[in-house]
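Re: weekly structure request thread

Next one in the queue (415 aa):
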Amino acid sequence: MSFFIYKLAIYLYVSGIKIASLWNAKARLWVNGRRTFPTINKNTANKDKTIWMHCSSLGEFEQGRPLLEQLKKEQPDAEIVLTFFSPSGYEVCKNYAGADYVFYLPIDSATNAKKFIDTIEPTLVLWIKYEYWYFYLTELKKRNIPTLLISAIFLPYQPFFKWYGGIWKKMLGCFSHLFVQTPASKDALNKISFVGNITVSGDTRFDRVITIANNFEPIELIEKFCGDNRVIVAGSTWEEDEAELIHFVRANPNIKFIVAPHSIDAENLKDVKKEFKGSIYFSELTEANLHSTNIVIIDNVGMLSRLYKYATITYVGGAFTDNGVHNVLEAAVYGKPVIYGPEYEKYAEATELVYSGGGISINNALEFETVLKRLLENDEELSRVSNIAKNYVYVRAGASQKIVDHIYENRLLTN
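Done, posted below.
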């Protein structure tokens, strides 16, 4: 992709978002969030050490969070600046106590990059997994500011490996060090002449989900709703996932079901409630009605990672869409079988979980029901798959510590 095409693509994207903001609430948040340029109170900021972490969205924040929190714990005097590209990350995390400042990342341009970096004066920069913005990265490189790419994964279809990928390769060259999830990612980079500054560290999400599990906070009404029953928790579901669930839910009133849709806008929640007849929104659940239904629909954000704890079997959505499967680790960490659809192969952890036997991919509702019956009717098999899922997560902990060790060994927080 040429420099001209890159600039044109950004212009068209921003224009499209502005047009969409006329009727789309998420696009409107994206636009309105960037109307004011970020500022920092330099009278109170500790400018000796400023750690800037940038994430595309909420999932990437959760990926970078264990690293950020460990650094903050060990460097309590450091200022933390957290930026997001997407409203789905910013809106949830804008009051995150672990950061001194939370901003939308201004649109990528030479002017904005210089102005923003002048504003925050970062000592160390952490970009999580997917984000590549030419002007920001080249400006950081020009100023010799240590910039690390965290938990990246590289696949053949990405632009770095295409004939038009020159500008993308240049962006990769701006990172001081690349921490990748898999040996295959390192091999792919080696083939395009990136060598020496690459470490296979694993995925920091393993550390994050283990922290969540170890600090589990009960949800009292859900606990009472589940009781001693068999429970299926379906998380991050799309319409295609819900279509696979409906028949089994209707045919098994003796099983408790918790459905957490990917989108919780009012219209989608209304559609989901209509699909699962007799269901109750979590916000409507009370001591008086929790035994009047076997289906609860979660109408909030932030609870899902705890809900999986209550499951006998979990289902993770997204893998019947082009988006691909959502976070399977949040379920596996509790030692629960994880079922998902066929679109998962671009996610290393989902692929490895299937290969290990802790995850099960299904292609249609009939296969889904067959798998559920096999696990629910055979406690030994259920226990075996559950243990595999949990072990898969715990043996892969430690990516955050590897990155922290690199930061200290190379004195990246020392001016």
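The chain has two domains: 3-36+45-202+398-409, 211-394. The longest strand covers residues 231-237.
Next request, please.
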